[in-house]
Structures are given as C-alpha cells and as structure tokens.
Amino acid sequence: MKKLNLLLIATLFSVLAFSQQTERFVLKSAGLDTISVIAYKNFGLKMYYPRTPECDSLKFTINTDYAGFLGEITTLLRREGYSATRTKGMFIIVKGTPLISSLPQGYFGKTKESDSGDELNPLLTNGESIARSENKIYKIGDPNRPKVTGRSIVSGYVKDLDSGEPLIGIAVYTDKGNTSAVTDAYGFYRIPLPRGEQALNLKGYGMEDTKLMLDVYNDGNLDIVMKEKVYSLKGVVLSAENTQNLRSTQMGLEKVRIDRIKHVPAAFGEADVLKIVLTLPGVKTVGEASGGFNVRGGATDQNLILFNEGTIYNPTHLFGLFSAFNADIVNDIELYKSTIPARYGGRISSVLEINNRDGNSKKITGSAGIGLLTGKFHLEGPLKKDKTTFILGARTTYSDWILGILPESSGYKSGAASFHDVTAGISHKLDEKNTLYLHAYYSKDGFKFSMDTSFNYQNLNASIKWRSLINEHHNLVISSGYDHYNYRTNDVGNPVNAYSMNFSIKQGFVKANFNWLINEKHSLNYGLNTVFFHLSPGRLSPVGDESLVNEKILPTERGVESALYLSDNWSITDKFSLDLGLRYSLYSALGEKKYYTYYPGEPKSESTIIDTVTVAGGKLVKPMLGPEFRISARYAFNNDFSVKAGFNSMRQNIHMLSNTTAISPTDTWKLSDANIDPQKGWQAAFGMYGNILNRRIEVSLEGYYKEMYNYLDYKSGAIINMNEFIERDVVETSGRAYGAEIMFKKPLGKLNGWLAYTYSRTMLRQVGEDKGSLINRGDWYSASYDKPHDLKVVANYKFTQRFSISLNVDYSSGRPVTIPLSKYYYGNGYRLFYSDRNAYRIPDYFRMDFSINIEPSHNLKLLTHSTITLGVYNLTGRKNAYSIYYDTQSGSKIQGYKLSIFGAPIPYITYNIKF
Amino acid sequence: MKNKTNIIYVIATLLFVTSCVTPFEPEGYEQLENILVIEGDINTSGKTEVIVSRSLKLGDISKRNYVKGASVWVESETGMKYTAYQYINGQEVRYITGYNYLATDKSYKLCVITPDGKQYESDLVKPLIPPPVESVEFVTDTTLKEVTFYVNASDPANKTHYYKWTYTEDWEFTAHKYANFEYNPLTFKMEEIPDYRNKYYCWNKSESKSILIYSTTHLSEDRVYRMPLVKMGPNDLRISLLYSIEVSQQALSKEAYQYWENLRKNSDQLGGIFSPQPSEMRGNIKCLSDPEEVVLGYISAGTYVKKRFMASKSEINLYWDDHVCEIIIPEKAVPMPIPWSTMHEDGYVPISYNPSERESVWVLKECADCRTKGTKNKPSFWPNNHY
C-alpha cells in the first residue's frame, strides 16, 4: 500500500516536473509504469514490457536531457539484463537477448561482407558444451564473425560416456566432402568441414555409432561423448578400422587393442602384450625362449620399444616367457614396421609403441587375477572427478614352486626365479587446454640358480608430459623423462674366482612435438627430440676376501642424440595425399673419453694402432650428422581401395652386443663412437589395401625391400663381455631383406580375427679386408631369423557375449642353423667340423593354440565381473625344433638331437576379477 | 663366461616339465669327409708324437681314419730337421721322433707330406715352458655325493696365463667276491686258485676326454685355483680301492688358447638356446700348394710337466658297493641240484668249494672275475703288493 502511495507521489512529481516544461528528465526510483507514460507523452512510443514481479520492481534513477532519455533507459535496462528495441513506434523491452526488428542484411540477395559487429551480443550461442544427441543441431562457431573462405576447423575431445576416458582411434567423418579425421592418443580430433548444415559421423570399435547434426559457421570446438556398445554381434556394414586403414597415408602400421590381446591364447594363460606382436605379419622370432623379435628382417636390437615415451631395453620377464607390460593397464599397441613417422628415430627397423590408459575418470574400478605362475592387480579412478585420474597396476610371480619340485640332487632345488612389475599413471587436467600426465614403471627380475650364482635385472622409467592446445590449429606436447636398465650377475662358487658383474644404461630425454593444421590441405608435425645416454658397459668386481679377480671397470660411455623433424601431411586432392617427412639427426659420443685410432683399411688390432686421442669431458667426440627421409604417398581410388608407397631411411646409434642366437639376459649395449659407426638402413615399400565382401573383410598386400649397414657381428672367438676394445673384435655386417605380406582381417562380427601370410628373405654379409677370417668368406648367408614362409591365423568366435573361443595357428619355415658336416678325433675326443654359417634349415615350425573365455556374469549392475580362461598352448603337441645339437660324448657315431622348448601341449587356466 | 652356462641350466630347469630332446637326422645335405687333421705338439725335451688322419662322416662308426705312409718331421727355423718315424700298433698309426732336446730360444714348425704328395706345414711356433704343477687335490661333497679332483697351478713370474691339461688315470679295483676255486670245464673238476692267479685284483686305465684349458688374464695373479678335472659318483669303480691321476700341464700361446677354446665351445653338448653360433676357427697349418684348403689342427711347441696324485678309498670316503651279487648253491637247488656244467654254461663261476660237504657257491662271472672290467696289468709305479 505504501509502495503504491510512493509511486503515486513520484508520478505526480514527475508529471509536475514535466508540466513545467524543462528540457531535463530527473527521476528518482521510477518504475517502468512511469517511464512508459513519459515515453508515450514525450516520444510517442508505446512501451511494451513483461509484467513480471521482477520487472515491476525495477526502479530507475535518471538524470538526462530530452535527447539522451531513451539511450539512458536502454543502458539502464541492459544493466538489469533487459534489452530494449525501438521499432515502428514501439519501445519493446525483453529479458535477455534483444529482438531483431528487421531481417538480416542480404536475406533476399547476395551476401555482403559486413563490418565486424562485435559489440552486439551473439544472437545464438552454443547451447550445450558436450554433444551427445542426434536430435539437436549443434552450432559450431560464431555466425556473426566475418566469414572466411574455405573450410572451418572443428576440433574437440571424444570421451567415453561412462568412464570419461578419452577414446582413441575413433573415426570422425562426414558423408559428403570426403574428409575424415581420427582421434589421437588423447582423444582429440580436428577436422576441416565445409560450411553449413551437415551430419558428422563417429564410429569406433566397441562404441555405439554416433551421428550428430552440425551447423558450421566458423572454427569451433565440439566435445563429444560416445556410449559403449553392449551388443555387437550382428554384422556391421562399415567399421572404423576399415576406413582408417584405407584413408591414412600410414603404411605398415599395425594397431592392436587390448581386448584383442586378451583373447589370444598364450603360454601359461598370461595375456601377453608382446606375444600379440608376434602374430602380426612381418614379425618373427628366432624361437620361443627368445625375448626379442625381428621386424621385416631387422635384428632384435633394431626395434624401438616405447612405453609411455620411455625406452625399454628388456621387454620381457623370465627369458621371454612373459612380457614386461601389464595387460590391464595397456590400452593398445602400435607397431610401425614400414613408414615410420618423422617424430620417431633411433632404431632402424621398427617402432613399437605401447600406451597406457588414463584411468576411469568417473569412479574407482579395478581388477585382480590369478594364473598358474603370476598374479596381478590393478586399480584406477578419479582423484578429483573429471580433473585428475590415476591408474596403478602390479604383477608378481610365484614361480619358485617350479624349481621347488625338482629333486635335491639336481642342485637347483634351492633356486629361485621371480619377477614383479609396477606401472602407475596420473593425468591431470590443468584447464580446458592443458593437461599434465605422469607415468612411472618399474620391473625387476631375479634368478638364483644355486647357492652360488644369481642374476637380476631391472627396468625403471619415469616421464612427465604436458599437452597444450595452443589454439584450434595448433597443439603441442612436451615430455621429459628418465629411463634406466641394469643387470648384475654374481658367481661366488669358487672363492678365488668369485665375481660380480654389472651393466647399466641410463638415458634422459626431452621431446617437444607440435601439430599444426595449417589448412585443410596441409597438416604439419614438427619438433625436437634429445636423448642423453649414460652407459656403464661393464664392471667386474671381486667378491669376498679370497677372490683374485681383478677389478675392472670399463670406461663409461656417454652420448647425445638430437633430432629436428618436420613432416607435412599434404592432401593434394581428396584421393591423393602425401606425407613428406625429414628428420635431421645429430649424434655424438661425449667425453671424457680416450680412444685409439687405427690404420684405415686394415683390420683393427693391437698392431694397427696409430694414435691415442683424449677428449675432455662434455666435448663431442665425433659428431655424426645426417638426414633421414620419411616419405609416403596414398592414392585412394574409392572408399574401398587404395594404394600406398613409402620410403624410409633411418639411423641407429646404439648397438646390442650379442653373439647368441636369442637375446640372452647378459647381452649388453654399446654406443657408437669414433671407432664404431652408427647403423643405417633404408626401406622402400608398396602396398594395396581394400575392403571386400561388403566391407566385412579388409585385405592388405604389402611388399618391401630393405638394406642395412654397419650392423655388428663378431669374429670367431670374440669376447663380448668386459672387452674394452670391442672395436677389434667386431666385423661390420651389411644386410638386405625383401618380402611380401598379405593379410586378411575381419575385425567385427561373431567370427573375427586375421590371417596373414608372408614370404620374406633376410641375408647378411660380413664386410672386411681379410676374407679368410670372415664368416662364409664374405659371402651372403641367411640370418638366423630368415624364415621364408610364414603363416599366422588368429581367430576368435563369440558364441554369446559370455562365451568365446580363440584359436591361434602359427606356421613357419624352419630357421637356419649351422650344422656339422664332418667329424674327426682330436684332443682325445670327437670334434665336429661345421658348415658355412646358417647353411641348413631345421624342420618347419607349426603350432596351434586354443582357448575358451567364459564370463559367468554379464549383468552391468553387479559389483564384480569375473572371467575364466581355459586353454591349451601347442594343442597338437608338435615337438617344434628350437635348435639342433650333436652329442660327441657317447661313442664314435655322432648322434644329432633336436631340442624343443614346448614339446607337449600345455594346458592352463586363469581367473580374473574386475571390480 | 660361466654365467652363460648357468643360464642354460636355468632354462633347462624351468622348462623341465615341457621341453624335450629327441634324436634327429637332418636330411638333404651332403656330408664331408677326408679333411686332413694333424695332431701333435712339438716336444722340445722328449719325443714328439704326431697323428695324421682324415675326417669321417658323422654316422661312420670308425673312430679315426689314420693316414699311413706320410712323411713327418719337425723343422727348426734354421732348417734343422728331426724326422718322425711311423709306428703301427694294430689300427693306430703314429709318427714319433726320437728323444730331442731342442733349444727353446728358437721357433719350430711341423711338416707333413701326405702319400698323395701334398705338402703341409704349420706356422713357426715358439716353445713355451710351463711352471711346475702346484698340486692336485680332491674334494668330497657329501650332500651331492660326488668327489671332484682339481689341479692347482701358478706362475710366480706371471708369464704363463694360458694353461692346458691332460691326465691319465689308473685305478685298482676288486671283484665283488673273492673266488678261491675255479671250475675246469674239461675235467669237470673244481680247482683251487693260487693267490698269484687271483681274479680279484685288477687294474684299468683311462685318459682325459674333455678339453681342459684355463686363462688367468682377468686375475691379479697368474694362478689357477681348483680347476676341475674329473668328477665321480659314489658307485664309480675308480674310487673303490686305489686311484691314481697323473696330470700333464703345458703352457699355451694366446692363439693356441683361442683355438682350443673355440674347439671346446663347438663340442659343447647343450647346443641350445644361448650358446653362440658354432664357427670354424682356423688352425695354424697350411697346405703349401693350396693355401685355401682346410686343414684341422693347431700345433704348439714346448715341454710338459707332470704330477701324479694317488688317493685311496678310505681317504676319499665316498665309495659304496651298490651291487648285490646273488649267490647260488647248486647242490641245494630246488627242485633238483644243478650240475656244474650247466652253471658254467649259464655264465656262473664258483667262488668257494667245500669238498667235505660237497657244496659249492657260485655267482655270475662279473661278480667274481675282475677281468670283466679291467686287466691284470699292474702299473709299474703301483705302491702295493697285490697281484
């Protein structure tokens, strides 16, 4: 009541003021009623405003002249969140966005470039920050901004709806326009799109297909969530992987997801990240107890194994029986065996990248598992919801029981063999554009054969990574870390000879990687890598007071490897694209160092030393610079057929010293220096890729030719361990390899898997002056892993969502070995005269494994989910020869024997719980 | 290095359950034979013994294909020749020089002309004089139930570094049972065996089979401590009564050591997982007319030092006779007594006979006649008065 009176009085006063006919409006706490009267009386405007209590309670204090009255009202209203529009004799007041009183410019005609009109509030804004629904139209960009010719860049993150984890490898594409993109390792995508309305499709393995309606105006940001597909048994017409293989210029990239890894049967039932690599075409091993693998005819030390950016020197546990990576933490593995992107370097045959998952960002989950020989456990979840997540996994073995069942007299009953590993990762979102990742990994293996001898080795890696989206076109990743590998053997049986020997290699690295999407035709990737090496080649120490062993410490080797790289992914047309990469690398051993120089052209020995050179600490010993080219091209005839070609040249500055056929745990590494040149290699490859049978099956055919130089091999009788002047005992070897790989892959459906056949040859040749001392007199000979025919089948059949079976078939030609050709009696025993190196092949290798996967409960609401796997490794029980040897101790007839590692079928059972 | 061998054991252990070894005959390749092999080191204070042979195919059961009718001699760097004469002993053919005392400051080479007229020559090698053998000892391990014989050597002058040993073993043993009587199948009578014709004490001998070499370059002293020579278990006949081992030691050059070391690696039985690839290492003998021809063998020069060590059963304290000899008294056999001739035909021999009781005790021949495992040739140096 009081209010009304006041209002009346105010009105009266104002009217009085008016009637005095002054040029100024002075109002105190005037409501809209008053103002509307003034507007009508003085300006002839009818005022319309919302009759809401909020609006009614608005009070304005005004002191302006006649001309500024309306402007002042408008300003005051705007402050309150209202806007006023004057049109056709009306003064309309609305809450929020202003009314448009006329049609936009050029509505009926040509579009005219307008001046930037940024003062106005945007009329339409992005309603939602995360897109998930097909039924909405998501508007990208600001329509009022000046239009730019060409396409707009749309970018954002694709995440899992339930766990919030970024989804990697999701195909993002439009129906028209032939553009596509794939989410990167962080779930981030960037796609150039034409203007206007269109549909954006997203497909990913194991995820529901998503289709979003977009209206693109300008560059903009769109984060998308996808739902996990619960049932995926019916055939699907198009798969993301199909598109990926055809569309990318990447040749020879094999990518395997963790669920595939878990279904392939493996010895002792342990899901093995590395064993899956062996089922891919082009990858071979020397045999089952070997920890290393050979990619397209390359040696085992020519593969760069990266685990979250850190380099792993020994990727297996227990002599190759188990991999060093915890399958629960791993997200996927990528093997680059042909075209290696310019951002990688340091090894000449392949790059194997193993990536961790980030961890569920919504809730804490985990799993635990027990197998015959190992137990594992993992935990992941948010530390701060949607901002910080962690993932942690640990594995350990209890395989001592195998040694415990041996009889006392074997002497190994008290032996022990064990390993354990721990992996941890934290990802922290600093803000919308910046994320920080921390990774750590530790593994340890130890063996004690008897009371007197023991052996252990460790891997330790730690890295920190900062990822930043500079703007829509540009992002960067900077990472830095430390890698450490060392081993130690102890033998204290004979007190006079008791010794312990150590080896260690440490490296620190810094990497900066930039991605710049210049326009829809060019996308640049450039950056810088630097690695500092610190290698202790060997340290022999006496153990105990009675030991006469001389302490010998080989001088520490230090080196630095730096590279600058630049590569451009150039889409010349929609069908034809090129990837041009150049990596310029510099390597040098660092002082402090003392070394000998030798007469050129003569085999290096004590008698051919010319001079001794000393280099001060920190100085470059012998800088070696060189470019590496990474070129590939792709021509896509249509969505179902494409052709690729590539050329790669690589350099490698670190060598593994090993003269055994398989990687032995006591192999050491050596850096290149003044007397040992880096290894170099190049590869040319060509491939054809297509989808057949209504896109259900992918076919790929790749052929390659490769040459390698400066690979190290050894003279007869060379001593590898603790040899300070190893340059005198090594022989430079060149190699060449060629082959063709054909693969059929069916990624989806009840029956899925792949079949790959490879024909390949790898030959080596020692290069040197003194032909007599060279292996095979300097002629070409087969490498130990030269297996011409190789057939691999990995198949999985899902009867129901709970029950599936897997079959694995591996067939290859026998590997070459050196065998005796003649026997003679010498030194009171039978001796064998051997053939040329690797002149004979052992019988072919054939193995079939089978496993059954059962998931007893599949209810999404249960607290824990368990899986049981039963299987048989080497189902047919074939005694595949690993090696041949001859018994010269049992009489004059020399009998040959073949050693098989797994000579019988091995059944296994494992049990896993996920919570 | 030793660690590699251990790793092989570990793998063998871990895969004990599933790995296996099966006999194997490789197919589809040609074997070689008739590669010339020359073995024999130049002895600068004694006889030099050389064997010239040719290699055989692996499946050939013969031990050695000796070359007869070759000309063999030792030649000094100044051209002095010392001829080796051919000696044939059954199947074996050796070329042995007379006793030579050669100057150790000169180098020597071995020359061979094979019956087909080809001439072969070793490089000139410097004679190396080894230090005396320090000692030979044994260690009995009661847990593992084995005894190991070791040699110790050292060179106070720190000049030797590379050692090679061979040994000859002699041992005395007995039959399980002492036979006092023997059965004469011609007279069908039991005859008493006088002591001097006993079949109870016998001797046997053997030589080292493996390549025993050692290098002391990684030690601060030129000293070999406990180099294992031979290992025996608790039922080994060698340690059942009296055992003698005579160790012969020589010094090698670095190249000779590398050759023997390579030969030893190539002969390793466990040719598996982590062993290095076998490869041929050239010896130091060449064919003069065809330097590319493969000739196997490495000729060293120098002297040998020997040391004998003897140990008795009680000192070693390991042996126990696990053999159970079944005794039969044929006169008391059921259902009817067995005639002596039948016992004899079945391979039994008597050990005792009581004419008054008309009872005899018989055992299998191997239980009472030590000559089934040895000979009655007692070595000249044997310290007891058994016969």
Q: Which spans of chain A have pLDDT < 50 for at least 5 consecutive residues?
A: 13-22, 110-128, 231-242
* CATH class identity of the domain at 33-127 and 255-299 in chain B: Mainly Beta
By CATH reckoning, the class of the largest domain in chain A would read: Mainly Beta
CATH H-tier superfamily of the largest domain in chain A: TonB-dependent receptor, beta-barrel domain
Mean pLDDT of chain A: 80
Number of helices of chain A: 8
CATH topology of the largest domain in chain A: Maltoporin, Chain A
Poorly predicted tracts of residues of chain B: 1-17
Shape of chain A: elongated
Strand residues, percent of chain A:
over 45%
Bulk shape of chain B: elongated
Mean pLDDT of chain B: 86
> Sheet with the most strands of chain B?
10 strands, mixed
| Distance between the ends of chain B | 47 Å
Which bin fits the share of residues in helices of chain B? 10-25%
